[in-house]
């Protein structure tokens, strides 16, 4: 029986994917085998040695200490694409709302309550909220993953001319992208072409302040920006200056800050991107399935700190080894399995940055003594026998 701790309200649709005969799910277990989390901050949490995996029901993992998890042999999963439709729909909605000044117009209209000449006031006042249609305009999409590709495709259907920039685009995303999206190999070449720019990349040290004073200087005067990925991707000081000068005429974001609230041309939503029951269900289902498959079978899918490794069982016992990505590890592992008289039926080894994962199915005396010897290899972090 595996114990699972939930640190946020996880959709029951997802929890139902955890077999009750194999998983004990609780909010207060002290030493869980796995954790299901949404937004709870784990950066300063001390993890028990028993913890094997953390599954984040969502894409961002900046609330999880990835390096420390790797050092302790804790596999961290996320759910890329599970909330993609929810975020993409909101981005398209805000693209239109920002272009047509919907938020400011709606707020102004609320002030007409009790006006006996409301019809005349509406006709007189609407001129100040005249906006533009998006059809025929140019949209630049930074990041063409699950969300960015959906936004790009939808914008094409709405009659926009779409440019996309993503030097790391996956094969799956490329296949799903409309052939009408024009590919740019250089961000600086794309920015001057766009009436609207939307950013859809993860927050990393290398992507912090992707939109900054230098990139904004390359943009069209009056460009509109959308940020429904991470607040830190846009440099606030540079943005505020661009809003003051008119370089940026509108900024739509899901990440409000004190500096942005009340600014003309800025629409802040309260982190609504994935806040739909459908997205929460999708994220919970994917997270639960990833956690279940790893705990039961050792398979790793959609991990952010470990390599992708999955294979059907080939018989016998399964040995799962998390170790440092160093030369000679395979020979050290197989030397011990040979010494134990094991017959390896199937074996896979993959690495991700400085970490690696070796999984093998073997017949013979697969026991705790062998696990202890494997654990004694200096670069080995964790050994599991399933």
UniProtKB/TrEMBL annotation:
Entry-linked InterPro entries: ACT-like_dom_sf (IPR045865), ACT_dom (IPR002912), D-isomer_2_OHA_DH_cat_dom (IPR006139), D-isomer_DH_CS1 (IPR029752), D-isomer_DH_NAD-bd (IPR006140), NAD(P)-bd_dom_sf (IPR036291)
Keywords assigned by UniProt, alphabetized: NAD, Oxidoreductase
GO molecular function: NAD binding; phosphoglycerate dehydrogenase activity
Domain (ACT) ranges: 318-386
Keyword Oxidoreductase: yes
SUPFAM superfamilies per the UniProt record, alphabetical: ACT-like (SSF55021), Formate/glycerate dehydrogenase catalytic domain-like (SSF52283), NAD(P)-binding Rossmann-fold domains (SSF51735)
EC number: 1.1.1.399, 1.1.1.95
Gene3D superfamilies: 3.30.70.260, NAD(P)-binding Rossmann-like Domain
Reactions listed under catalytic activity: (2R)-3-phosphoglycerate + NAD(+) = 3-phosphooxypyruvate + NADH + H(+); (R)-2-hydroxyglutarate + NAD(+) = 2-oxoglutarate + NADH + H(+)
Pathways involved: Amino-acid biosynthesis; L-serine biosynthesis; L-serine from 3-phospho-D-glycerate: step 1/3
Its job: Catalyzes the reversible oxidation of 3-phospho-D-glycerate to 3-phosphonooxypyruvate, the first step of the phosphorylated L-serine biosynthesis pathway. Also catalyzes the reversible oxidation of 2-hydroxyglutarate to 2-oxoglutarate.
Family, similarity comment: Belongs to the D-isomer specific 2-hydroxyacid dehydrogenase family.
Protein's name according to its UniProt entry: D-3-phosphoglycerate dehydrogenase
């Amino acid at each position: 029986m595996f114990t699972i701790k939930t640190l946020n309200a996880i959709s029951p649709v997802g929890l139902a994917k955890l077999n009750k005969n194999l998983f004990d799910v609780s909010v207060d277990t002290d030493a869980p085998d796995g954790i299901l989390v949404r937004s709870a901050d784990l950066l300063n949490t001390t993890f028990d040695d028993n913890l094997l995996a953390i599954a984040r029901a969502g894409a961002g993992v900046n609330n999880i200490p990835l390096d420390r998890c790797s050092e302790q042999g804790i596999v961290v999963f996320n759910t890329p694409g599970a909330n993609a439709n929810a975020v993409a729909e909101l981005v398209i909605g805000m693209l239109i709302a920002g272009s047509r000044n919907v938020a400011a117009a709606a707020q102004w209209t609320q002030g007409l309550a009790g006006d006996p000449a409301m019809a005349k006031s509406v006709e007189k006042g609407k001129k100040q909220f005249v906006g533009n249609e998006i059809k025929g305009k140019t949209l630049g999409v930074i990041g063409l993953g699950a969300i960015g590709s959906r936004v790009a495709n939808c914008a094409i259907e709405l009659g926009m001319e779409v440019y996309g920039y993503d030097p790391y685009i996956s094969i799956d995303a490329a296949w799903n992208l409309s052939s009408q999206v024009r590919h740019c190999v250089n961000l600086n070449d794309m920015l001057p072409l766009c009436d609207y720019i939307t950013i859809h990349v993860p927050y990393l040290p290398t992507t912090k302040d992707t939109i900054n004073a230098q990139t904004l200087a390359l943009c069209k005067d009056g460009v509109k920006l959308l940020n429904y990925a991470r607040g830190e991707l846009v440099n606030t000081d540079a943005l505020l200056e661009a809003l003051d000068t008119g370089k940026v005429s509108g900024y739509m974001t899901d990440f409000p800050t004190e500096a942005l609230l009340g600014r003309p041309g800025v629409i802040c939503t309260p982190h609504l991107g994935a806040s739909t029951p459908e997205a929460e269900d999708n994220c919970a289902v994917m997270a639960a399935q990833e956690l279940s498959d790893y705990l039961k079978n050792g398979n790793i899918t959609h991990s952010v700190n470990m390599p992708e490794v999955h294979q059907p069982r080939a018989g016998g016992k399964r040995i799962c080894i998390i170790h440092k990505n160093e030369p000679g590890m395979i020979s050290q592992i197989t030397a011990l399995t040979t010494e134990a008289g094991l017959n390896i039926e199937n074996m896979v080894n993959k690495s991700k940055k400085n970490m690696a994962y070796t999984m093998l199915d073997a017949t013979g005396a697969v026991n705790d003594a062998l696990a202890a010897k494997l654990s004694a290899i200096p670069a080995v972090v964790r050994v599991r026998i399933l």
